[in-house]
Amino acid sequence: MKDENKLSRRQIISGLSASLAVATVGSVLPVEGAALSPEAAPEPLKDPTTAYPRPPFKSQTQPWPGLASKMDPVPDHGEKSYKGSGRLKGRKALITGGDSGMGRAAAIAYAREGADVAINYLPAEEADAKEVVALIKAAGQKAVAIPGDLRDEAFCKKLVEDTVRQLGGLDIVVSNAARQQQRQSIMDLTTEDFDATMKTNIYAPFWIIKAALPHLKPGSAIIGTTSEQATDPSADLYDYAQTKAATTNFVRSLAKQLAPKGIRVNGVAPGPIWTPLQVSGGATQEKLQKFGGDTPMKRPGQPVELASIYVQLADPQASYATGQVYGASGGAGMP
Ligand code: NAD
Ligand code: MG
């Protein structure tokens, strides 16, 4: 336990009376691990429509899988803003695609909430992964980096075994990695493309969850990253969109199967989010320049805006939430 989080009974009681005194402006019970002190200034209200960059964006392209650090503007994964309050203290998490995008935002948030975190990514993403490892360590947590290709069943099994060995257990699995390469026509989609998308987005979660299950105790959580594409597929994402429908579906099936074992399974369904996926073949340049502009929010989301959703779904306090898919699409509707 970090020293600043250690609260004596006297501190708790004196903090309690202080917060009761300010009850009219919103009291906060100072429990162990809480980051808020009674005298902390409230965060000013922030207009979400103007909080982050809006289109038009510069035309830009990177070879797949792309690096967050080379995007313009660089995405916000919560590096400077996410504040933890001990919600995942002592937990051990594996996050695939933890180097960038939503996986990175979840990794930073989990570490700041007190979890040790293992991330998987492709070897080409080492530069992004190094930054995430440094951020997890800066939060005072253990960081494990396991590069490798999830299209390989043997690697998926090894990933889980290495995570369990190096973290000393596993209680949160975030299956987040995915392949998205747009093709204007089904005629342009090769069998190799189709196979790579299915292997990454459907087979890998199957292999990883099977390998993880024997280690997951009651109270553990599995989280899948699905998409608004599951229910509202784009014309140029024939293969990708159907894998997201499959992800939403497996979340609901597995939730029913694992509820009696005390393991919760939930999904996050993002709308357009500013990540390397989109600049490395996931979207056309035309779509990229206007990215997110057609949502009611008139902008894309930033990965940090989904961090608290990944935390909420992993938090043991959300103990009755399973089989749920939580959307974050700037107003575009239900997942
Ligand atoms: P991202 O590029 O930052 O993350 C995807 C990650 O997948 C990569 O960082 C890479 O490490 C990993 N990956 C891909 N193929 C792999 C392989 N063969 N082996 C190992 N790792 C591999 O992009 P993101 O947008 O943060 O994507 C995260 C999740 O969000 C994905 O499941 C994606 O489908 C979903 N999603 C994204 C958006 C969006 O607009 N960005 C919208 C809806 C859903
Ligand atoms: Mg990446």
Automatic annotation (TrEMBL):
Signal peptide: none annotated. InterPro entries: NAD(P)-bd_dom_sf (IPR036291), Sc_DH/Rdtase_CS (IPR020904), SDR_fam (IPR002347), TAT_signal (IPR006311). The keyword Amino-acid biosynthesis does not apply. Belongs to the short-chain dehydrogenases/reductases (SDR) family. Pfam families: adh_short_C2. Keywords: Oxidoreductase. It comes from the Bacteria. This is SDR family oxidoreductase. Residues 37-87 are annotated as: Disordered. It comes from Hymenobacter sublimis. Transmembrane segments: none annotated. The keyword Oxidoreductase applies. Residues 73-82 have a biased composition (Basic and acidic residues).
